[in-house]
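CHAIN AND CONFORMATION:

***
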Amino acid sequence: MNEDRAEHLKEAVPVLSRYVDALGVRSFAGGRDDDADHRDSVMQSFKEYATVPTLSMESAREHPCQGLADLMTIEENFGLTRGLPVVLTWAPHIKPLPKAVPNSFLLTAAMRGCEVRVAHPKGFELHPEIVREAASYAQASGGSISFLHRQDPAMKDARAIYAKSWGPSTGAHLEMNAVSHHPEWMMSWRQMEKAAKDAIFLHCLPVRRNVEVADDVLDGTQSRVIDEAENRFHVQRALLDWLLNE
């Protein structure tokens, strides 16, 4: 019971496990220390102490169900994903956001063999352990990962564009509101025109219109954000079925 905490996870998690067939856990990053967020202490404690299957509904480190829904949406549109050029691009925001969603998109796309291009301004690097893990998945799946500090070259002939804001790296010496300093990174039709003609646009939602993404992209024919949100429902049902019945 550290500081103002009301209960130890060591007791709370086993008690909850007595009441249910599965646990869905959502926790959030502190956003001040990438290493601490990467250690994912809340989710790791649930993993250690739960006596029933436990699903991560987002944690300090990852959002695996979102990553599955993202790749399901890409597969619905293109089928096989090996070698498919996809872009994960940083987007501006009014405040720093966690890295769980971009981490999971990178990891899941690497597992599926995509040609992943990660574009972000300097100072917004993802955690090196996430990058190493993704690289190992890409090597095993026949995919690839590249990192760019400019958005335009990443977009060239890409088939899926994923825009997402995240906060600066620990030790990057950026102001906390630095996420608002790059308005030119907002996804607009100008950038989408550089992608392949059949490219689709993805975002996990909710989204700040005309800050992260322009209306002409969100409301355009290439947007798949509603399909993507629906697919969260499907992958979570499938996960529960697999955990409880297989």
User: Anything to note?
Assistant: The longest strand covers residues 85-90. The chain has a mean pLDDT of 94. The domain at 64-229 is CATH 3.40.50.1370 (Rossmann fold).
